[in-house]
Each structure stands twice: as C-alpha cells, then as structure tokens.
Design brief:
145 residues; 40% helix; mainly alpha; single chain
Length: 145
C-alpha cells in the first residue's frame, strides 16, 4: 500500500529543493530481520517460531498448492501465490542477506536530504507491517487473523 509523503512548504530553515528532484527514501526507521518477525507474526495473528535461516523464494514459492488451499478455505481474492507476491520473495532474500556467510554492509540510510526538503515524519516499521497486513485483510487479499 503506497504512502504519499508530503512536505510542508519550505520555510527559512529549509533549503528549497528543485521541483524536479526525486528522492528515494526508507521509512525513517532502522530495524533488523530477527526483531521484525515477531511483529509480522503478531499482525497476522500468529506466534513466531524459532529463528531459522529461511529463503522465502526457495521455501515458500513452491507451496502454491497450499496457498490455493488457503484461498479455497478462507476466500482471499489475491490470486495465485506467484501473482500475489511477484518478485517480493527474491527481494526479501536479497535485502535480508539470506545465504551470506558474513554480515552485509550496514543498511542504515541517511535521511538528511529528505529532512532538508521538508519531509520530517517517520514511520515505524512494525506499525507499517501491521497496517499493510490489515489493509490486505480488509481488501480480502489475505485471510483474516
């Protein structure tokens, strides 16, 4: 679910940005995978299991038949697993460092340019996951918790 970010009009303390400037931003929160799984599980009405190195692409993608069973039982209208998640499993595996033997580079990103352009709000990652999953459930893309 996209979030529209609006900056207040640049004031004297803010440097104006050219109208054509494009900024790509994180949500302003810093988290690590091991700490986010309990929040994801809670927002889906589940209890987290043990932390295991898991490739979503290798472990979950082949479970299309199980997803179809869930769709038949609970009625979500999200389509096939492939249609629903697209390349998200591969993206998550990469960004979460699945298969690395050593930690990857730090993923802390500066938001200074955003704040200078007037974007001062941040979003809590756990709350964002909960909001997105609730919207998926409200729109019948995921079963209710």
């Amino acid at each position: 679910m996209p979030t529209c970010w609006r900056a207040p009009s640049p004031g004297p303390a803010r440097r104006p940005s050219p109208a054509t400037r494009s900024l790509t931003s994180p949500n302003g929160d810093v988290f690590v995978r091991q700490n986010i799984w309990p929040a994801i599980a809670a927002s889906l009405g589940l209890r987290p299991g043990a932390h295991l190195p898991l490739s979503l692409d290798r472990e979950i993608r082949p479970r299309e038949a199980k997803w179809q069973t869930i769709r038949e039982r609970h009625g979500p209208r999200s389509g096939s697993l492939r249609d629903f998640v697209g390349l998200c499993f591969e993206y998550a595996d990469t960004t979460m460092g699945h298969g690395r033997n050593e930690p990857g580079p730090p993923a802390i990103v500066s938001t200074i340019k955003l704040m200078q352009a007037g974007f001062t709000e941040v979003m809590d990652t756990e709350a964002t996951f909960a909001k997105c999953f609730a919207e998926f459930q409200a729109n019948r893309l995921l079963p209710s918790a």
